[in-house]
Amino acid sequence: MERPRVKNEDQYEALRGKGYSKEKSARITNTPNAGKKGGKASPYEEWTKAELYEQAKNVGIDGRSKMSKKQLINALRNN
């Protein structure tokens, strides 16, 4: 199986080293804000449902349109 195309090779390899699947590593690496560091993002609990929905869309979470805010948070943390 061919490895997914990634924007940030170092980040991809780091995620693979942590045990993430090829698909999940590529999805995280290719998220628009993936390369930003500094821990400046607020906790998901402080995000609006619309912001959580957009993030879920960016990382390819299926079924997001029917999820509650709590479910979106759980899906983003565990996907």
TrEMBL record:
Origin organism lineage: Bacteria, Pseudomonadati, Bacteroidota, Flavobacteriia, Flavobacteriales
Residue segments, region Disordered: 1-42
Ranges of compositional bias, category Basic and acidic residues: 1-26
Positions of the Rho termination factor-like N-terminal domain: 48-76
Organism: Winogradskyella ouciana
InterPro entries per the UniProt record, alphabetical: DUF7218, Rho-like_N
GO biological process annotation, one example: DNA-templated transcription termination
Xref: Pfam families: DUF7218, Rho_N
UniProt protein name: Rho termination factor
